[in-house]
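In the laboratory, one determines a bound structure by crystallizing the protein with its ligand and collecting diffraction data. In a computational setting the workflow is compressed into a single prediction: the sequence and the ligand go in, and a structural description comes out. We illustrate the idea with DP6.
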Amino acid sequence: MNGSPFQATALAHPNIAFIKYWGNRDEQLRLPLTGSLSMALNGLDTVTQVSFNPGLTADRFILNGVEQTGAALERVAHFLEHVRQLAGINLFAQVESGNNYPSSTGIASSAAAFAALALAATKAAGLELSESELSRLARLGSGSACRSVPGGFAEWLPGSGDADSYAIQIAPPEHWDLVDLIVVVDRSEKAIGSSAGHKLASTSPLQTLRIAGAPERLEQCSTAILTRDFERLAQVVELDSEWMHAVMRTSSPPLYYWTPATEVVIWHVRAWRAQGHAVCATVDAGPNVHVIALAEEAAWAETQLRALPGVLEVLKAKPGGGVKLIKD
Ligand code: DP6
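The predicted complex, in structure-token form:
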């Protein structure tokens, strides 16, 4: 345990979903309707310190130096309840978390946030969880966080219930030299976040069809990664992203996350691939585009992307590892 007996600090990376999680069969436990698969993003770090303190009369949550109240604090406090129950303690905690990437880039930070919080809080509470137990716990905070626990190329097994719904690493980060070029086209806060979006998924008549095809797409994606088959990866990653956005757009009320610049980026990425470049595009719950490229194409693709109209910024991330403890 690092620091004082009730204190620990952990670091986690966000992840980009190649096969998306969109819709739960149990909202409380965040049990997904389908499996999903992602790559952890190295160099984008969330560092979280947790201290359980007998002197506190309530949980505190400080994010990037700013004391949080309302929904953000409640989500963290609710998560800490799970940890207190597991550890059999009744102390409140101070949680201090910081990201080295600006939240204005629209990169979902909840995955890294709850992976880091799960490890730091359980360590600080004196618990030693296995990777799968930690992944299950992180899932209760944010579904995609369960994939940031093992890191690398990670598959979330939907499971039959709480006990077997967690993520496993199917290949380590060094398995495949891919790069995620995160193309920022809009920095504004999104109006509807993922948690609200998951609840709307079932209102789309397309969700049943999307779910029916998901296991086959996941299998294709997993095989493409294990055999380092970029063209196969590109086809299934783009198809799966399109399915999720089709569901979003046909939900009641509809969710429409893309801007014209999103379309411009995707259109060019497809044209470049048709010319023989190893690039493909996927979009999470927002307008920014994740362009996945073979490492040897990344410098070329970055230059092209920066020249497109509407592109504000391009961040780069290689495959990253899982959550880990760091010194305070
Ligand atoms: C579009 O994990 O952010 O990024 O469980 O409510 O926190 P909560 O949702 P979240 O949903 C992720 C949605 C997605 C696709 C994905 O990462 O698989």
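The radius of gyration is 19 Å. Keep in mind that any predicted model is a hypothesis to be tested, not a measurement.
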